[in-house]
DNA sequence: ACAAACTCGGATAAATTTATCCGATATAGA
DNA sequence: TCTATATCGGATAAATTTATCCGAGTTTGT
């Protein structure tokens, strides 16, 4: 469904959000350990999340990544997915046609559209804060 | 969403179904031209569809691919997707965890599950016959 | 029996995604 | 100012997906 880069990006952002709620900055090393991801690859993903203003990064000693409090309930899964995988997964045609629309639909168009719309809606209504809170409450689990 | 191999596989099967409704066998070359796919790559995909009993292949002169009439309304999109991409897209965890379930859910688990279930339901209730009929009626389009 | 028209399947190659390495640069603290 | 600790970012490598090539085998029709 999502690329590995995107999976890592979501996990990382959730972890950063949780720690930022506790006013703690986290290092790349810490993140990669927590979410069990390759460290250097994770660095690239975090860079791109930072460039997209989803997280903030600080260089140097005591540096690391954090999320601004304002962003807790502003950033959604959609922001992350869009930044890493682009919008193809919830906007693109199921058969890969570039010119597929209601006027000239591919055979799967209408069946697919409602699923894509649901997916998009889910992504854009799920905030990082919700995800973090669930984990804090023990309702869901990031680390296995 | 789906791999390119899977997209080609769906398009090819729909085309084969349409021609089989007209009692015509189609060659690899004809299929690849119609669905605008790389011919040799398409051959591999057709081989795997044939091995999964979704289509039948015949070697030699006048050979090619066809679908048995019985299969028109038996084969669904799910059969094709399962044969080519596996079941991960509608069964797998959104964050890639292998041990993600209602008892130990990942942060996206429940939001995702309903979408995956919808996707699976759509795939397993859409038959090749329906797709072919829509095209025959001019309601949808395979060739652009 | 032979030739033409096909698919099969193994070996490669190209493209993309995932992953690693490392020097450059920035920051905190002694 | 110096050192330890971080991220940044460019180069490279490994793995996977996509795509190509071609000889072998099969079938039809002559």
Q: Would you mind describing this structure in some detail?
A:
The structure is a homodimer. Chain A has about 140 residues and is mainly alpha-helical. Chain A has a single domain (about 5-135), classed as Winged helix-like DNA-binding domain superfamily/Winged helix DNA-binding domain (Arc Repressor Mutant, subunit A). In chain A, about 55% of the residues lie in helices and about 5% in strands. The first copy, chain A, contains 8 helices and 2 strands, in the order H-H-H-E-E-H-H-H-H-H. Chain A has helices spanning about 5-20, 30-35, 40-50, 70, 75-85, 90, 110-125, 130-135, and strands at about 55-60, 65. A two-stranded antiparallel sheet of chain A has the order 1-2. In chain A, a hairpin with a 5-residue loop joins strand 1 (about 55-60) and strand 2 (about 65). In chain A, helix 1 (about 5-20) packs across helix 2, helix 1 (about 5-20) crosses helix 3 and helix 1 crosses helix 8 (about 130-135). Chain A is elongated and about 55 Å long. In chain A, about 40% of the residues are buried. The mean pLDDT of chain A is about 95. At the A-B interface, helix 1, helix 7 and helix 8 of A face helix 1, helix 7 and helix 8 of B. Chain A binds a DNA duplex (30 and 30 nucleotides) through helix 3. Chains A, B: InterPro entries: Tscrpt_reg_Rrf2, WH-like_DNA-bd_sf, WH_DNA-bd_sf. Chains A, B: Pfam families: Rrf2. Chains A, B: One of its GO terms (molecular function) is DNA-binding transcription factor activity. Chains A, B: One of its GO terms (cellular component) is cytosol. Chains A, B: It comes from Portibacter lacus.
């Amino acid at each position: 469904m999502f690329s590995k880069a995107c999976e890592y990006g979501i996990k990382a952002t959730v972890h950063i959000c949780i720690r930022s709620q506790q006013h703690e900055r986290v290092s790349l090393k810490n993140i990669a350990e927590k979410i069990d991801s390759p460290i250097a690859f994770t660095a690239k993903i975090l860079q791109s999340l930072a460039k997209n203003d989803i997280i903030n990064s600080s260089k140097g000693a005591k540096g690391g990544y954090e999320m601004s409090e304002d962003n807790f309930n502003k950033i959604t899964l959609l922001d992350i997915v869009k930044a890493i995988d682009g919008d193809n997964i919830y906007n693109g045609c199921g058969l890969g046609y570039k010119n597929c629309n209601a006027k000239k639909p591919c055979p799967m168009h209408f069946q697919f559209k409602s699923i894509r719309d649901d997916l998009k809606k889910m992504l854009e209504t799920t905030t990082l804060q919700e995800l973090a809170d669930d984990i804090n409450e023990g309702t869901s689990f990031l680390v296995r």
